[in-house]
Structure formats: structure tokens, C-alpha cells
Write the C-alpha cells for this entry.
Amino acid sequence: MSMKGKFIVIDGGEGSGKTTILKWFAETPFGKKFLITHEPGGTKFADKIRALALSEEATRAPAETQFGLMWAARAEHLKNKIIPALAKGVNVISDRFDSSTFAYQIYGQEAKHLEELFWQTREVFLRDRKPDIYIFLDVEPEIGIKRISQNRKKAKPLDHFEKRSLDFHQRVREGYVEFFKTVPHITIDAHRSLKEVQLEVSALVRKYIRS
Ligand code: Z5A
């Protein structure tokens, strides 16, 4: 089966702006042509797994549990939403993907023993459906956390990952840097104003889709 659509992932730590930027992008004339989706979740069943993974009860769940839940949700999302769109020639952008599992479970939750299993699972689950490019919105955890704790509390309560220590979020950032040594990616400096980051993301996507 030939895959015509391009598969782009946008990822980064807390408050890097992914969600805000994708919401804006989805409303632009260019953005309307994309399937914009997110993880964990993206389908009805994957959203149920998301609810489990982010529930209070999961606060103390070990990395192995979260690793399994995230990959289960991803398999659903990929098979039932992403692959059908790509096959129809639709370009897909996912807010978070396997880069988040590497950063949060293996680095954030300190489970380096899962690293080999991560790459094996990635090969078996994604096969020829690996993202074409990852856009990494890089921001210092201190700054990202400040953004979400100032602006987000009322609209959407913080989940148990967001409530973790600064050390956790620093490890997550290290995890992203490590992951991106292996896959095609573009790093964007997300310390700048939302407008600047937004315009850079949009220009990059445009350039990438045309190339
Ligand atoms: N998780 C995992 O552990 N393993 C996995 O495999 C996957 C996920 C896939 C839920 O994710 C959690 O699941 C997540 C990782 C874990 N844990 N946490 N935390 P989610 O995607 O549902 O939630 P999130 O990504 O953390 O939150 P978010 O709302 O999507 O945040 P964001 O995209 O990073 O930021 P934002 O909502 O766009 O922006 C936050 C605020 O900052 C907002 O008020 C903006 O206006 C402001 N902002 C953003 N950019 C700027 C700039 N440049 N300047 C000033 N202010 C800004």
C-alpha cells in the first residue's frame, strides 16, 4: 500500500505550546487540510486508555504500566485513525507520539531498562508508519511549568504528570534530546513569544509538505 500523506509529530514538555499552536494552526486555511490529532487518545477507545493513564489511581503506576498503556493507545490510534488518513493522502499532525513515551516513561519515570523494549516495540508496532518528521518544541521546564500553572489551572486541572517535580521534567527534557538523536527532527526554540513559535512551526510544516 503506498502512503501518500505525510506524518508529522509535534512534541515537547509541559507548556511548550504544542496544543495552543495546533489549535490555531487547525483554523488556518492551510491547516484545515490536515488531520490534527493527539496522544494519548485520538480515538474513542484510545481516549478510554488515556483516562486510565491520567487518572488519580495511576499516579503511582510504575513505568511498565504506563509504557503498556501508552503503546496500547498508540496501536489503536495508529491503526484506526492515522493510517487510514495517510492512505487517503491526508497529511497528519499528532500532538505527542512515541517521543513522549521515551521522554516520560524511560527518562521521566527512570526506567532505562525499558529502552531496548521501546525500540523493539517501535519497530514492531510502527513498521513503515513511523513519523516522517518530529518537531520538537524545546523549553526549559521551569518556564514551561510556570506557563501552565499560571494559565491552565482553572480551565483544565493538572494531571499527575504535570504535578511532578522539576527534576522529573528536567529528565523528560533530557529524554527528548536523547530520542531526537535517532529520528528525523527539527528543534524549535520555544522560549520565544507564542506568536514567533507559532509562525515558525507553520512555516516549517509548509516547507516540509512542499519538499
Ligand atoms: N504522556 C506520557 O507520559 N507518555 C506518552 O506516551 C504520552 C503522554 C503520549 C497528557 O498529555 C500527559 O500524558 C502528559 C504526558 C503524558 N503529561 N503531562 N503533563 P497532554 O498532551 O494531554 O497534556 P500536555 O501536553 O501536558 O498539556 P497541553 O495542554 O497539551 O500543554 P502544551 O501543549 O505543552 O502547552 P499549551 O497548552 O499549548 O500551553 C500551556 C500554556 O502556556 C497556555 O496557557 C499557553 O497560552 C501558554 N504558552 C504556550 N506557549 C507560550 C509561549 N511561547 N509564550 C508564552 N506562553 C505560552
